[in-house]
Design goal:
Elements (H helix, E strand, L loop, with lengths): L1 E5 L2 H10 L8 E5 L5 H9 L6 E7 L25 E5 L6 E4 L8 E5 L8 E4 L5 E8 L6 H6 L6 E8 L7 E4 L5 E5 L6 E5 L5 E5 L6 E4 L21 E6 L16 E5 L9
Parallel strand pairs: 1-2, 2-3, 3-4, 4-6, 5-7, 6-8, 8-9, 9-11, 10-12, 11-13, 12-14, 13-15, 15-16
Length: 271
């Protein structure tokens, strides 16, 4: 995969106008300045989009002063072969990523958007990795159902993901989930999981957490074959720090699936 870089609007224009696109070409594009929604739409209708497998928009937040109307709307674009989408500082209208817009997306990372996204709505059949960092979601009621509509999700991590206190419990149906980590989800109240493949689950400084429960069976619902699992569920390991997990409701620590339990801060990632 060939790498492309655009640090200015002129460089992006050159990339879009001069980059050859053919049946066997694939590109990774990194944009190092805040883009407007008009530019985002232009990128999504360019010839390059048909060969674009990775898109990174990352810049210092001070650069936002240079760009007006820089909030991008992911519900109005189409990237047919994009596998990875990573944004840092870029304002985003909503964390809306649907299969109709991003049918091949496997990795999604949203970090420190300079606004408060309106809502969270995911439906990504191929998503394997999801990371969210320094985000307050105005309406996060679909957090559980969004994760549940990503049946191939293996790894979830978040740091300062706020707004989840809108519900007392988010139910997550995740047949492929292996690793789950949340840090500083300050208003998170409760989670229930059906996650038969889970190996590691970690909570740090989620001080309002009151419930973590592991469901023993797939709840009733219109679940496709990708949600069906055979064999015995995995053993999982729990890490917690500055969280009263022993005092929480639910069976996270008492389930027969629970293996090691640790309160070592070194178990956690550094974001």
């Amino acid at each position: 995969m060939s790498e492309l870089l655009a640090a200015t609007p002129q460089q992006l224009e050159d990339v879009l106008n001069k980059t050859p696109v053919g049946p066997n070409t694939s590109y990774s594009l990194t944009i190092n300045y805040p883009i407007s929604n008009t530019t985002f739409l232009m990128l999504s209708t360019s010839e390059l989009r048909d060969a674009l497998h990775s898109l990174v928009i990352s810049f210092d937040s001070d650069q936002l002063r240079q760009c007006k109307n820089s909030v991008i709307d992911t519900s109005r674009v189409f990237f047919p072969v994009l596998r990875k989408f990573h944004v840092v500082s870029q304002p985003i209208q909503s964390i809306t990523f649907l299969s109709s817009n991003f049918p091949k997306l496997e990795e999604l990372s949203i970090e420190q958007p300079s606004n408060h996204p309106q809502k969270l709505d995911l439906d990504l059949p191929h998503l394997k990795l999801l990371h969210m960092d320094h985000i307050y979601v105005t309406d996060a009621r679909k957090f559980g159902s969004s994760i549940s509509r990503c049946p191939k999700l293996k790894c979830f991590s978040s740091y300062k993901l706020w707004g989840l206190g809108c519900l007392r419990e988010h139910v997550i149906i995740a047949p492929s989930l292996v690793d789950w980590e949340m840090q500083r989800a300050d208003d998170l109240l409760g989670l229930s999981f059906w996650a038969p493949s889970l190996v590691g689950i970690r909570f740090k400084s989620c001080r309002e957490l009151q419930l973590v429960h592991m469901l023993e069976k797939l709840p009733p619902g219109d679940w496709g074959p990708e949600y069906q699992c055979s064999g015995e569920p995995s053993t999982y390991h729990v890490s917690f720090y500055c969280v009263d997990l022993p005092g929480c409701h639910g069976n996270l620590l008492s389930s027969k699936r629970c293996g090691d339990i640790s309160d070592d801060m070194d178990d956690f990632q550094t974001f």
